[in-house]
Task: structure prediction
Amino acid sequence: MNVFNGRRAKRLVLSLLATGLALAAGCTAVHSSPAADRVMPLGQTSFEQYVQETTDWIAKHRHFVTENPAEELAFQLPFEIRPAHPNGKGILLIHGFTDSPFNFRDLGEYFARHGYLVHAVILPGHGTKPEDMLYARYEDWKRVVAEQTAILTKEVDEVYLAGFSTGGNLAIHEAYRNDAVDGLLLFSPAPAIRTSLVRLVPLVSLFTDWLKKPDEKTADVMPQRYRNAPLPALQAFAYSMDESYDDVASRPYAKPVLAFLAENDSIVDTQKLLALFQKQFTSPDSRFIWYGTQLPESVDASDARITVRTDYLPREHIRSFSHLGLVFSPENPWYGCNGKNRFCLRGQSDENREKCHKGEDLWYGSWREDRDNHPYARLSFNPYFDWQAGLIVNVLNRL
Result:
């Protein structure tokens, strides 16, 4: 989630607050109530029905931005990968805020090769255009996770939920309420974030649906994700954040949890979460992977469940890990080390930004990385991807 990340967003929020507070009391939100044709269909009783109805809906509502709409559509769709040699276990994959099921294509394929039945969902409001997020509710996000978890439990003996960022929040929420869930895989989960600006969303939403209106030509759509989100969707994220944090803080969770956190994540407060997870995720089979160089002081470093792997890899020109990169393979054609997407960091000098776009002396890091005066792009892949995927499979296979 990047909407509240940066000084520009802060100025926009403060400006809107100043304007809003000067208006008369009693204003109502700008957006209208949901229309039936603006909400992704739910309530399916099989994964096949879910895929078909979702495909039809996204194809009808998608704002296409490339010359290959079939490929672009495929990035958005829920998917199933059936293993050649099933092991009786399944994994439900839940993408992040403004993202798509493409978040989990690399890991999904790896899991299926090792015997796991893989189902990936798409959260309502995603896959078409940010405008459609005006009509999606947090309840819809929870519903699709609950429905698809129930469907997967009918096909396998063990079910694990895997979530990236907001998807991690939704996975936590479902696991705390559903005994059929056998464990969690959390990648950059977001029950706590580094900015408090999200708390201003309800007030700002009284006067506008957007911090910045979508571009008329692109609708702020990229092939695999959105560049923008309306305030009602940010409020839905905030609900997911609060509810998942309260779940974990309220009581221990005894089933295995594998959590992957980056020390320099510019969005998630990973220092706070690692301490919380270590305390509340009590299974001896849990694993907490810390991509960084220094554990938080509040963490018991003697805990054998914690593994630290450095995020400073100068030979690979990697200065730090980002929120986004943990789920993608270096070989991914869009997000990998030679991928088509390059996210040159904001805030660097014009000279370094130009070098970044040209790929000259390019280094990678989190959104807030500015050390050493290198040209920086956001790290969008995980150099430890194979090790990470292998660790997950080895732990789950032993359960």
Observations:
- The chain has eleven helices and ten strands.
